[in-house]
Amino acid sequence: MSFVLCRYRRMMSSSVAQRRLRWPAPAYAAIALVACAFAFVGLARSNYWADELFTVYVIGGGDGLAGVWRRALTDVHPPLYYVLLYGWSRLGGLSEVWLRLSSALCAVLALALTARVLWRRFSPAALGFALALVAVSTFWFEQSQNARSYGAAILIAAALMGLTLRLRERTPATGAFPWGAFAALFALGLAGSLMHFYLLLLTGMVLAWLLPVPRLRVPVILAGLLILAVVGGYTWLLLHATQQDVDKTWYRADVHFFWSQTRIARKHLAAAGASWALTALIVAALWQRWRGGRGSLGARVPEGGRHAARLALFVLVGVIASGVLVSCLVAPSYSARNVLITLPFLCALLAWLYEAAGPRLSGRGGQLAAALLVVAVASGLWMCSGRFVERNEPWRSGAQFVAGMPGCAGQQIPVMHPYKFGPPTPQYRAFAERQFFGHYAPAGMQLRAWMPNELVGRHRVPELTALLAARAQQAGSGACPLLAWAVHDLDKKSAPLLAQDLARAPGIAPARVVMQTFERARRRSTGWQPVEDGFVFYVVPAAAPGAVPADPGPLVAMPAGTLGKREVVTLLPPAPRQGTVDRFGVQDWRDGTLQRQDTVSTPQLFCDPPMRADSEIRPNAKRPGCAAPVGASR
Fold first, then answer.
1. Distance CA 579, CA 603 (A)
2. Which helix (H) or strand (E) holds 11?
3. Residue 404: how many other CB atoms lie within 10 Å
4. What is the pLDDT of residues 68-122, one digit of tens each?
5. Packing angle of the helix pair 124-135, 24-38 (nearest 10 deg)
6. What is the pTM of this model?
7. Could you tell me which residues come within 8 angstroms of residue 22 by beta carbon, excluding any fewer than 6 positions away?
8. Where are the transmembrane segments (predicted)?
9. What is the mean pLDDT of residues 265-271?
10. What gap in Å lies between CA 161 and CA 300, rounded to an integer?
11. Which of 161, 110, 99, 113 is nearest to 140 (CA)?
């Protein structure tokens, strides 16, 4: 009897120990499942942002697939995503819910497929940690509700990872050739390369990983050349058809830009608590490597996990290096978002890191460390509160405000052309009017897109100058006071400069310019804070001499939390010996409270350089030809 009791106690003790060793896995699984559930919450809470509006333009412009093809050639991305989303839109329309639902499904399936590929290669706790950290990452949060190609791209990347591992490890030296797996790899590589150019780089890396397998070498080379030929042909067609200036976009090809985007990618992979967890594991790995010597980390990882981690590291480094090379030799394209389509491979590296340096639960110290890691990663779930707020550029609220402005019904609505998105050609101006500003605007609104230098009179357009001057002269009379509506390519730093330049534009003074801001939520750590984004500029009468400063008040009643501050800008009379410098009185108002009152001086400008995608809203006064000639006055 004593023998049986002793044996029973051992079994119970072993069972408890095993449960302790496994307990972080269910916790991490719960974190990932909650994040996945929130991918389907609030799909329509945020309006489309600029890139999504371009997606709607490509797939919703009529003429079937032929029209989709023509419009896709105006972009800088391959066409397959648009073709697939066009088919999806035929089932449910172009609403935010329906189009974003496809991205949510792809993002969730990408996590599920990654889990399937890495299952049994890592312990449940290590795999759970990796999946949970990815599920609460900023990148996954954003792309799971973004009607762009990134959700589908990471799903294809997960499939490519699984097929590559299978072919590398299971291709026999003799016997039947794995035609099924290889054909799937080729088809997915070609499809991915025609969906996102960085999937072409990723496909090249996984094909290169298979070259050491003798039986795969020739098929891999032929497949790579065929994919490269197809994508190269489309790229040639795209570069000759697109209206974008691919060398003058927001992308750059310099060391500082590459480094900053890599840092952003790191931040978008792990933020706040998840970042602390990742940093702690990296420090633990370095400490263990220093104490245990070479091989001490890999010894704790199963062989299948080591294979997956080596592939993941090879692909990640290869995509980064080739992305930098393509940016320098072909066209700038390196960005945090593009690099992070390797997310399934990063998941393998995260699982390896936890396996190699994560806590062991045999003691209280390990139990405590494991609990702290779970709490740190779980803190990222607070980001899910962003599903209930407006996170994108306020196209919808801006359109509601402008539509409600007194006296503006049936009048021209000047809008600032998003010049960083597309060049100021007649086609792109019409696109901005219809697809950007017009998407949420009431039918019949007379939108006209103007460049910033045209709005402020540096580049004179008599029709526009006369219109804005007439509105300034009629300020306070009930006539339409709108000077400009701007959303994209303007932020809280550049918008006040545009307000000042409007205040000194021909015919505006002595009327004052009001810059009404709109608010949206921006991620900060794992939470959200309101930021100003989206601006409407309009005129109010000049203040009476000696009048007490007063808030002009909201011109249009809007829902709570929509409107931000109002900045009132007045061009002041020139001071003695002021020279070629303009002075502005600036007041910031919010809810009837004066938050700031200041006087700002800025040099007059005597130049009108062409505005391109890399131009600032106002030319630098030190630019040759912009400074005032000796004795000049304006």
1. 9
2. helix 2-22
3. 14
4. 999 998 888 899 999 999 999 999 999 999 999 999 999 999 999 999 999 999 9
5. 30
6. 0.91
7. 124, 125
8. 21-44, 97-115, 122-141, 147-167, 179-210, 216-239, 269-288, 308-331, 338-354, 366-384
9. 94
10. 22
11. 110
